[in-house]
């Protein structure tokens, strides 16, 4: 696929840049650079209102496979979506709190949901008014998602499901209005069978409880979510067909957003390069590793552009995850190595009563958070299994 940008794309680039400059003012300007992986706790209220601002501008749902204007969003080509994403990241616009609803839930509803579900949920996502989180992983069923135990039983009195169980590593659960939950709806079912994809309202006092999980970086962007008879009125797809829907969603998880992520990576690499230059060090080994990081980042960009047009490629998301997860983790290691002994020191400005993260500098925070990059979102081992089994056709791993 030729991924060159044409005149129409460059015109959009100028329009996007102008719109962002015009609207990133006031409280939104103060939220510039806030949010995203490792810092989802920052500027939440301003970022939530910014989501509505994006909705008013029609910038949410640009790639949805729906008729133009149905949900008030701009329909952009694939290259146009890349242009918008690049300009958004280049200006360090606030980290999106609505990306799970826009990039995961909405395409899944378009692919598997009913027209009634699409009409009910997509307009609110497009307006930036309803936020979503993902209820997949559980204790003991993270990478091995088929082992989930959260159960949902249909109440014969009203026909609604009652969900009971626990989910873990749930990003944005405290901010979300809704959660899409993979639950076992067939008693006694095993593995991939008997699962359903349910939509659960988070505002159910006494039935849904969110507990933040404190990380070693001092932040708590991940959460535990406990369901105790929570009501779920909506099933996406057929009851018992949740595994198909869940896997379809995961195939949609990595696309244009990967390119946005890489722009953030480039800024982090630039900072590390600056620290190395300022240190006056002349270590050829470190210098070689920094050059490799630069070259690998360029390669990841070309690979992301190449695979954007590869619809239905079962290995593309796993290859991308392996590339960026390992790359980012190595950057975190380089960041503290370039800093030298100072990076090993404890928080210099921390005092009792302050969060631990208050005393961490950018390099320390980068190092600590990137320890998780090769684990969350599907561990490296799982990604390699997917490539081996679904792409190379190798025998499945024995259990």
TrEMBL record:
Its cofactor is FAD. Residues 8-129 form the Acyl-CoA dehydrogenase/oxidase N-terminal domain. It comes from the Bacteria. It holds the Pfam family Acyl-CoA_dh_N. Residues 240-392 form the Acyl-CoA dehydrogenase/oxidase C-terminal domain. Transmembrane segments: none annotated. Residues 133-228 form the Acyl-CoA oxidase/dehydrogenase middle domain. Belongs to the acyl-CoA dehydrogenase family. Keywords: FAD, Flavoprotein, Oxidoreductase. This is Acyl-CoA dehydrogenase family protein. The keyword Protein biosynthesis does not apply.
